[in-house]
Amino acid sequence: MSRRRSLRAAVGPKESAPLFAALGDTTRLHLVFRLCDRGPMSITRLTAGTKVTRQAITKHLQVMEDAGLVNSTRQGRESVWQLDQQGLEDARRYLDLISKQWDAALGRLRKFIED
Questions:
Q1: Which residue among 23, 33, 77, 96 is buried most deeply as judged by most CB within 10 Å?
Q2: pTM, full prediction
Q3: Among residues 98, 96, 90, 94, which one has the least CA distance to residue 70?
Q4: Residues 16, 21, 54, 83: is their CA dihedral positive or negative?
Q5: Which residues contact 21 (CB under 8 A, 6 or more apart)?
Q6: For each of the chain's 115 residues, which pLDDT tens digit applies?
Q7: What are the residues facing 41 on neighbouring strands?
Q8: Are 94 and 76 in contact (CB under 8 A)?
Q9: Which residues have C-beta within 8 Å of that of residue 36, sequence separation ≥ 6?
Q10: Alpha helices of the chain — where are they, by DSSP H?
Q11: What span, in angstroms and rounded, lies between the C-alpha atoms of 86 and 109?
Q12: Alpha-carbon distance 102 to 95, whole Å?
């Protein structure tokens, strides 16, 4: 079973760790922003205007692909990378779950203090 499939099947810390590890890197987060803003791009376009090498961008994209954040398609001699919306949805869903747990804990604390 792929990492992507396991994350979508069950949302929990173990399954979500690769996703948040991928998002926790500044360069990879910058790539997410660029792909959100400009849509699918080749590695050449992703490296344009940066000091990051194409080899480094390729490694970052592989980490992001393993985490289910991006995917690529071949167009001629280049790979074009795009965001996998489901990966971002998985992150949002997990953060929503954590938020609900904190809201419940704070509600219990408020009730305890008021009683």
A1: 23
A2: 0.73
A3: 90
A4: positive
A5: 63, 67
A6: 344 444 444 566 777 788 888 989 999 999 999 999 999 999 999 999 889 999 999 999 999 999 999 999 999 899 999 999 888 888 888 888 888 888 888 889 998 898 8
A7: 81
A8: no
A9: 83
A10: 3-9, 13-23, 26-38, 43-47, 54-66, 85-114
A11: 35
A12: 11
| The predicted structure's pLDDT at residue 88 | 85
Domains in the chain and their CATH numbers?
3-114 (1.10.10.10)
For the sheet with 70-75, list strands across it: 41-42, 78-83, 70-75
Give the per-residue pLDDT at 94.
84
Give Cα 14 distance to the centre of its chain. Answer: 15
* Residue corresponding to tokens 């360069």: 27
Reference 6, options 71, 65, 16; nearest CA is 16
